[in-house]
Amino acid sequence: MSSSRTGIGRYLRLGVNIDHVATIRNARGGRHPDPVRAAHLAADAGADGITAHLREDRRHISDEDIARLSVEIDRPLNFEMAATDEMRAIALRHRPHACCIVPERREERTTEGGLDVIGGRRTLRPLVQALRDAGIRVSLFIEPDTSQMRAAQDIGADVVEIHTGRYCDLALAGDGPGREAELARIREAAAFAHGLGLEVHAGHGLTFETVSGVAAIPEIVELNIGHFLIGEAIFSGLDSAVRRMRALMDAARRAQHAAGA
Predict the structure, then answer these.
(1) Annotated site (Transition state stabilizer), which positions (predicted)?
(2) Does residue 221 belong to any structural domain of this protein?
(3) Which candidate, 28, 143, 217, 250, has a CA 20 to 30 Å from the CA of 57?
(4) Quick check: is 79 in a domain?
(5) Known catalytic residue: 80?
(6) 108 annotated active-site
(7) Residue 53: pLDDT above 90?
(8) Is 9 annotated as a binding residue?
(9) SS3 state of residue 183
(10) What is the CATH number of the domain that holds 254?
(11) Is 180 a catalytic residue?
């Protein structure tokens, strides 16, 4: 795996978000299906890391899940969290490989849009510093907006994760011109962030049909994908879904590298 903070490599990492295995478990209660087992299966199928979002209302991932993931998986754990004192304390207790700070509203079904780093600078800066002081890499989930990228660099983030939700929504709606315009915006933002010395990730809503365009952006070194893969796993199995996504990402990156050679 590439660990360079600023380098552009041929290999594109895949982080698999296992939140919605826990959603299914919690619908009935008990321990099945086990998100930690899903993490192991995803890793065996080609995931380079595991992502889990511990929400304030614990609607899917639980505190016990985070504790188990922290010690039972052999891949980096990316802990998605809101910028709250409670989540900071949990992150500092478990010290995952990385924390991705995301906006969170209790009434939302899923994360809607990116962080307002500019408006939240006063709250975010000490949180970022506390996590980094503990040896945790810090990522901020933001829109493909250059002003937000500058603010992320200013408060000391290691990584920005570009929100790809709008791009995926436009693709689902069949809006070809809108989709291409949004992809160009993501491409420009990734290059800008890379130029600032930030590591660039991307995610939200990516599917087999939409991943290739984002995977071909050379500055992006990691994609985080969850809901779609867990949904596909119902029909084809998690191993098959992760392997197919991994293959599509690799093919897009090879084509990009060949075109740029």
Answers:
(1) 161
(2) yes
(3) 143
(4) yes
(5) yes
(6) no
(7) yes
(8) no
(9) helix
(10) 3.20.20.70
(11) no
